[in-house]
Structure formats: structure tokens, C-alpha cells
Amino acid sequence: MAIIAVGGRKGGVGKSTIVGNLAAEFAAMGRSVIVLDADPQHSLAAWAAQGDGMLSRCVEKVKGANAEALRAKARSAEKAADVVLIDTPPGMPETAYQAALVADLFLLPCGPSPLDLFSLKEALSLALKARAERRSKRPRIRFVPSKVLMNTNLGRGLSSSLEEMGKKVLPPIGQRIVVAEAVLSGLTVCEYAPNSVSRMEFKNLAKAVHEIIKR
Ligand SMILES: Nc1ncnc2c1ncn2[C@@H]1O[C@H](COP(=O)(O)OP(=O)(O)O)[C@@H](O)[C@H]1O
Ligand SMILES: [Mg+2]
């Protein structure tokens, strides 16, 4: 059905967290999912290996920074699953660029700090460059407010700051302790705390993403 890549120049903004938890939400919607872990640090594979949750059954490591290998893997995964999610490393624009060349949707998570916003511009231009090379409206590009402290001014202002950058903004993900706790158990929030506020946030994000990719 779709290839969704998550990118961004900065580490620590929640890319891998969003990939893992979106994978679980799509599985909960009855979709088959493959997660391609294209970050040489393999955070997602490490998360999956902490337990025997859904990630342990759908995460595949993409080894090395070989652009052709990533694209070939993404295309074959697309034949085998409804949704393919690609996690890309920070600071390695080539991998994120290759992912943007195959993705239908490119998500750019951004944390609440102004420094996160600054580095987002580069990531946005990378995604736009991929679109120009493809001579296509693909990948669609969306911002995701991530690790938001909902009860702070910075947190509340993030979505509107992102809108000013000219791309649509998806429902925000709050900074919440269950997100990290779930990782410790090798689980996603969907599995670890299915009735939590955090779960609702990932579910809302997944619904919004689903609306985009089914078009
Ligand atoms: N919504 C969140 N709430 C709490 N902690 C989070 C959240 N998102 C990410 N984290 C934590 O922040 C750190 C960086 O997240 P990660 O997904 O690895 O970022 P990236 O992949 O962009 O480098 C991790 O320790 C992760 O558990
Ligand atoms: Mg990561």
C-alpha cells in the first residue's frame, strides 16, 4: 500500500520512536507491516530485541549505507507487506535521501526546541530535492511535532511554528514516560500501555497517516 520514511538531520527527536509505534498502530489496524531499520546504530532492532513484541517480528536491519540496497529492499518489502516503514539515521543525508526517493510519504519529526526547528529546514530541502528528482508529488511531506511538553508555551507553539514552514502538520506526540518504559520491555506503546494518553496520540497520528497514504 505505501512506503513511509521518517527522516531528519538531528538525532534524538523521536524518529525511531515514531517508526516503532506507528508500526504497532498499523498492525493494530489489521495491516501487515515491515520496518526497515536503515540506521547503522540499529536502535529499532535493539528495541525489538528487548522483548518478543510485534517489533521482534517485523524489524529488518538494512546493513551498510548502500543506497541501491535500501531502495531494493524497500521495493521488495512493499510487495510483501501493506505498510513499509523506513527509519533513517541522523546526520547521514544520503540514506535519508535514498529513502525519500522510494517513499510515498516522508515524515519529519521535530522536537519543541528552536534548535530542532532550525535543523528541519535542511531535512525539508532534502525531501523536496528527492521530489524534484522524481518529477513527482511523491514523497508527500508532513511534519510531526514530537516529544512535545503539552503544558508549556514552547510545546503549544510548536504546531503553528511548523505550519509557518509551509508543510502540513500531523497530530503531535507528547513527551511521556510510558514511551521510554515500553522500549525497556521491547514493546510499543500500543502493547505496553494500550489505554494511555500516549497510545491515543500514536493512534491519532497513525489515523492521519493512513488518511494520506490511502489516497
Ligand atoms: N514521545 C516521547 N516521550 C518520551 N521519550 C521519548 C519520546 N520520543 C522519543 N523519546 C526518547 O528520546 C530518545 C530519542 O528518541 P529516538 O526515537 O531514538 O530519536 P531519533 O531516532 O530521532 O534519534 C530515546 O531515549 C526515546 O526513548
Ligand atoms: Mg533513531
- Note the gap between the termini: 10 Å
Cα-atom Rg, whole angstroms?
A: 16 Å
Largest sheet: 6 strands, parallel
Strand order of the largest sheet: 3-2-4-1-5-6
Overall, the morphology is globular
Query: Share of helix among residues?
Result: 40-55%
CATH-scheme architecture: 3-Layer(aba) Sandwich
> Spans of 5+ residues with little confidence (pLDDT < 50)?
none
Assign the structural class, choosing from mainly alpha, mainly beta, alpha/beta, alpha+beta, or little secondary structure: alpha/beta
CATH topology: Rossmann fold
Mean pLDDT: 94
CATH class: Alpha Beta
Total beta-strand segments: 6
Overall structural domain count: 1
What is the CATH superfamily classification?
P-loop containing nucleotide triphosphate hydrolases
Give the SSE string.
Answer: EHEHHEHEHEHEHHHH
Description of the structure:
There is one protein chain. 51% of the residues lie in helices and 14% in strands. The chain contains ten helices and six strands. The protein has helices at 15-28, 43-49, 55-58, 67-80, 93-102, 114-134, 153-163, 177-184, 189-192, 197-213; strands spanning 2-6, 33-37, 59-61, 83-87, 105-110, 140-145. It has a six-stranded parallel beta sheet, sandwiched between helices. Strand 5 (105-110), helix 6 and strand 6 (140-145) form a beta-alpha-beta unit. The protein starts with a strand and ends with a helix. Magnesium ion binds next to helix 1.
